[in-house]
Write a structure and sequence with these properties.
Hypothetical Protein Ta0175, Chain: A, domain 2, about 575 residues, about 35% helix, about 20% strand, 11-stranded mixed beta sheet, Rossmann fold, alpha/beta
Amino acid sequence: MWFTALASDYDGTLAGDGIVKASTIAALQDFKKSGRKLILVTGRCLKDLKDVFPELPIFDIVVAENGAVLYDPSTKEETAIATAPPESFVQALQEACVSPLELGKVIVATWVPNEIIVIEIIRKLGLEHQVIFNKTAVMVLPPGVNKATGLDAALDKLGLSRHNVVGVGDAQNDLAFLTSCECGVAVSNSLPSVIEAADMVTKKDRGDGVAQLIENVLATDLQELSLPRHGVLVGTASDGNPIFLDPRGTGLLIAGTSGCGKSTAATAIVENLAEKKYQFTLIDPEGDFETLGGAASIGNTQHAPTVDEAVSQLTDRDSNVIINLLGVPLADRPSFFGSFMPRVWAMRSGFGRPHWVIVDEAHHMMPKNDNHIMRAAGMEMTGVILITVHPEELAVESLQSIEQCLILGQQPREMLECFAASIGAPTIFDVGEPLQSGEAFYWRKGGALERIKVAAPYTERLRHLKKYAEGDVGLEKSFYFKGPEGKLNLRVQNLILFVQIAEGLDDQTWLFHLRNAEYSKWFGEAIKDDELATDTAAIEEDRSLSAAESKEKIFDLVRQKYTASATGPQLNSANVLP
């Protein structure tokens, strides 16, 4: 199951007029019986909540005071996770006769229109405290404290990821935590702003809507629901539209001939997973991914990692793990994989993570005709990326729950047809022209074959930016400022020099190359930056621009991309870019 927890607001969501229906309680009990966790996220103080909601112990943890207090119903432990308000602030509110005035461990609460007095007192005392609204309720909290931060603290205690949480609420103070959940749901009586931001809106209101949501989660795990905001970029289609990997999807095969860029494509996807805080583990038989950022690495040529060691690393919800198998004999690697994967599925059944398992040299881990390994691994490839140069040598069972592939290299038709046959979708593919560097075919079962430009990994983008900002493209690819009569021969081998030299050029020489569209051509062919080339071409075509104006516009384009992103020497200040 993907959604392992429900995080719900209280007033206006679970409860109507402060009371939770018996039918809603029954739905919460059904959710809990499924092995999932219940989290209450409310603006109320605990004392008040306990008075009106005797069934509170059904929840595994409670986030109270709009994110400022945690409560464990099983131990009755209360923990303030933010600082109490200054006594001077409370005293000033009392002296101003603000009423009603409720004081929690951290929160100070009242009702509109008292926010005018509250804000004025905050200003006079020079406090950073924030005012948060819940319909007509007014809550004052320390800076940075809201339901999202409280939920994250609760999830940390439970060992859960926000990506495995479905949240439900109705008012403006719910927006922060709803958008932090993998799926944010608005009950039908919600404010328009909450409905607009939600991934899903229930047909029923309040507790009946929550019960409806629970029924859907238990029935389908919300697999029918599209959540495009969480998509992981795989590449860009020829029409410019992005191709995304669904983080809750059925897995991906990356296949291609040696040296075709499989590891580069996989690295970009894994980096995107890490950036979005999806937990992953990567099985790395050859040490090709040891420099990948955002992950701890275990194992090397001298140390063979153990399954227990790998699983121990993954118990931390924020830990991504690369398992280097160079110290494990080739013949023993399938056995390692067969022992490791059932432990992964066991973790997923309780926590929903690790979200993804990436397996390089997958044909060594799951060799064809080795059903023992596939049985040990559970044969379930949901949330798995398999990387291989030999898809025909993979156990057929390993591909049957994967419905999409990314094919690179010089034998795309053969690999596509091998994959299609393995998943029971025999298809003849018309691949057309050979793939160029950086291209791949993307195909999903039942869909059309697409030629795409593969997303570049962050490390590769940095290398590209650094190379063309300060490196040397070589004599043949250098730009030469020669002028209309060929009197000059000023070589430019990178973008720093391009700006330095162009800045001191006379207008006639600059405009000669501009009018001949030579700058955009060089950016496209030598710098290999189609976006920079296209934007520069538009400047070259604008005949109303003076030499100084066109220089500044082109310099700005270079600055924006190669100053903001590249590491090492920058294109401004010390490097003479204005």
